[in-house]
Amino acid sequence: MQNTAEDYLAEQDVIARWADQCCEFGPSHEYGDKSGRLFGAWRAFALANGEEPGSAKRFKAMLEKLPGVRWARSPAGLFRGRGFTGIRIRPQEPEPHWQETDL
Q1: d(C-alpha 26, C-alpha 52), whole Å
Q2: Measured between alpha carbons, how far is 3 from 95 in angstroms, rounded to an integer?
Q3: pLDDT tens, residue by residue, 20-79
């Protein structure tokens, strides 16, 4: 039993690090992203950090435990298909143009 509890806490810690580094949180009517996009970002993060990403079903269950994050089907104006509200992938910072960098 002890091992299962430790595994659960470690798993939650990894998903929390991913969410902190790769996602933004906000009101469910403004923030949302498709399941596949979120899972792809999670999978890349997990593999890059030596973690097992697990299945999409397990990922869904982990995300639903984050405060303010809810599974949704085609919420108005956010995305088409299945995904989550209250969370989105943080936009990538654009690479500076070569003329804008300090040399």
Answers
A1: 28
A2: 43
A3: 999 999 998 899 999 999 999 999 999 999 999 999 999 999 999 999 999 998 777 888
Angle at 28 between CA 24 and CA 34, to 5 degrees: 70
Residue closest to 35 by CA, chosen among 70, 18, 60, 66: 60
User: Is residue 66 included in any domain, yes or no?
Assistant: yes
Cα 31 from chain centroid (whole Å): 12
The pTM of the full predicted model, rounded to 2 decimals, is: 0.78
Enter the tokens of residue 79: 């995305």
Residue 40 sits in a domain of what CATH number?
1.10.10.10
- Helix runs in the chain, H state only: 2-22, 35-48, 56-63
Please give the structure tokens belonging to residue 37. 């996009």
